[in-house]
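haha ok so turns out i had the wrong file open the whole time. this is the CORRECT one, sorry everyone. sequence first:
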Amino acid sequence: MARDVFVSYSVPDRDCAFEIVARLEARGLSAWIAPRDISPAAEWAEEIIDAIAAARLMVLVFSSYSNASPQVRREVERAVHKEVPILPFRIEDILPSKSLEYFLSSQHWLDGFAPPREAQYERLSTHVVARLHADVGTAHAAPLASGATGTVFNLQQLQGVERRLAHHIGPLAQHLVKRAALHAQDLEQLIHQLGAEIDSEEARRDFISACRALPRSGA
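then structure:
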């Protein structure tokens, strides 16, 4: 059965993985996680392969355990092969092994290093919802974007901001720019709202500085 999200994890991180599933399902999303969703007497490998292929997104609980797990590596490889987007959620401050780096180097990472992780789980679920409900291509449907506040942003401004945000967080930038433009009072407020989506303080400063340098009539 198709699910919104496949959650990949290593057994020592089980509690964290199931807490993520609970958060996602509380948001109305459907999640697949082993062993809960493996049918009785079913072939585990076959069920996992089918579940990955049917998912719209993979959330990877990334730790030293999953980093060294052949099972997790196979799940990630299968997701890449099936063109299922991967959202890694790091619960340890480590870099991926060479066997995973090839598949994860271009992914946007979310961090949740130190428990309790309630705020990080909330942010993760917000990103997942945004990613799954993003309307691809609609951000540039009109030459002007008008927010609920009455603010009108030039399309070239939004494109310039989106390109700079995408450099830090990937394809999710399109949806976030579109959403923020509905509420921002002006370009400066828009830039700061979007900067909050970037985890690294240094990268956030670089993003804000680059956006401020955009021509006010276009990018």
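The CA atoms of residues 21 and 31 lie 6 Å apart.
again sry for the mixup
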